[in-house]
Amino acid sequence: MPFTIATPVHSELIIKKSRFIGCVQPMTDRASAQQVVNDLKAQHPGACHVCWALLAGGQSAAVDDGEPSGTAGRPMLDVLRHQDLEGVLATVVRYFGGIKLGAGGLVRAYTDSVAQALLQAEKTAIVRQRSLRCTVPYAMEGMLRRELDGAGATLLNVAHADAVLFDFSLPETAATALLAHLLEAGNGRIQWLDAQDGEGQP
To answer: Where is the UPF0029 domain (predicted)?
Structure first.
């Protein structure tokens, strides 16, 4: 199960006089991540590098920002992956202390900066939601409301016309069992619709 983090967390390491300022924060897209990085560059004009890694599905990125290729962004991304995170941005601002660390030293420094910050992170599970829509006869409204409540569904909208239209969402893990149960309990009187109002199967 993937996790995200609730709030930004920070770390600061001094390694051979170089200062590494790490931050890990919730982030869902590359444009927002780039804005954060631009802000960090403005806040730290004396820094040599602002390296970053974003783990957010197809928006993911790993940027070395002038460090030798593969020594910063990729190792940072690997830390996020190993912790089963999703929708998370890691940034590390580096002030050079005059002593070169070598490729192995850089990988360790950037990895440790992210790992240290994550020690303080409050992780929250990402629960995938599924949205469903159906209509039922008025006589079945109470029954459906009870079933949805029992399954932990979130009622998004209820509309009364020729029949009662329900829009609701629930965790994907619970959806299959609820659909099977309603298929049996509804005796064919529950009509499933897709999001475009056309009839179809959920």
So the answer is: 134-189
Q: At residue 129, what is the residue type?
A: Q
- Amino acid 199: pLDDT: 39
> Is the CB of residue 118 less than 8 Å from the CB of residue 22?
no
CA torsion sign for 30, 36, 39, 44 is negative
Contacts of 84 (CB under 8 A, 6+ apart): 1, 2, 3
* Per-residue pLDDT at 200 exceeds 50: no
Continuous H helices in 58-101: 73-82
Question: Whole-angstrom Cα distance, residue 56 to residue 74?
Answer: 14
Strand partners, 32: none
| Strand order through the sheet with 191-193 | 154-160, 164-171, 129-136, 191-193
Tell which residue, 64, 60, 71, has the closest CA to residue 30: 60
On whether the CB atoms of residues 12 and 91 are closer than 8 A, the answer is no
**Two tokens, residue 28:** 């869902």
In 38-81 the beta strands, taken as DSSP E runs, fall at 49-55, 61-63
Strand partners, 45: none
* pLDDT > 70: percent of the chain: 96
CA distance 111 to 109: 5
Q: Stretch 120-135: mean pLDDT, rounded?
A: 83
